[in-house]
Design goal:
Distance between the termini: 78 Å
Shape: elongated
Strand order of the largest sheet: 1-2
């Protein structure tokens, strides 16, 4: 009977996290769907409005299309920052892993806790902490990749450890000709 407390603690905490991540997963799924559908609908509407020559006052058509384009830009920037689709997928993975832990806990306790080894419960608890830690680390890494580490005026030198491989900067060497300065890709 001494392990009943640990089993109850684990079940309550994992259930609570499953519920929380399920809510956030569903919310982000809806937001990802609305962003995709909304931006597509707004872009299509702007195109159709601009294409209706003679049916709509051209000034109104241009203004409505401009407003829709600005809305698309705002919503796209919002989604680029919050990345609802990535959150939806990550939270789905987290819920799946937590439900797996619940199934393992149920399996170990289905015939009672008398013959249950404490180290097995401890292993489930440590895995529970790892799942939450991995999800939190994932979010921190996503946010860290979005942070600006330097400004154009304080550009790091080639080989600077603060640069990611995809941020490598190589400046083309200018060529001086009789007609002025040109660059290799001109």
């Amino acid at each position: 009977m001494p392990l009943d407390g640990k089993v109850k603690f684990l079940r309550e905490n994992i259930d609570s996290q499953v519920e929380s991540f399920s809510r956030r997963r569903n919310s982000n799924k809806q937001k990802a769907f609305l962003v995709k559908l909304g931006t597509s609908a707004a872009a299509g509407t702007a195109t159709v409005i601009l294409g209706f020559q003679g049916y709509i006052d051209p000034v109104w058509a241009k203004n409505i299309a401009l407003i829709l384009s600005a809305l698309i830009t705002f919503v796209s920037a919002w989604d680029a920052y919050f990345n609802h689709r990535a959150l939806w997928l990550r939270y789905t993975e987290t819920v799946t892993e937590l439900r797996s832990l619940l199934a393992e806990l149920d399996y170990l306790t289905c015939s009672g806790t008398e013959s249950l080894e404490e180290k097995k419960l401890d292993a489930i608890f440590h895995r529970y902490q790892e799942v939450l830690g991995e999800t939190n680390s994932w979010w921190q890494n996503v946010r860290e990749d979005d942070r600006l580490r330097w400004t154009p005026l304080s550009r790091p030198k080639i080989g600077d450890p603060s640069l990611h491989p995809h941020q490598t900067f190589v400046a083309p060497a200018p060529r001086y000709t009789t007609t002025g300065v040109s660059y290799p890709n001109d």
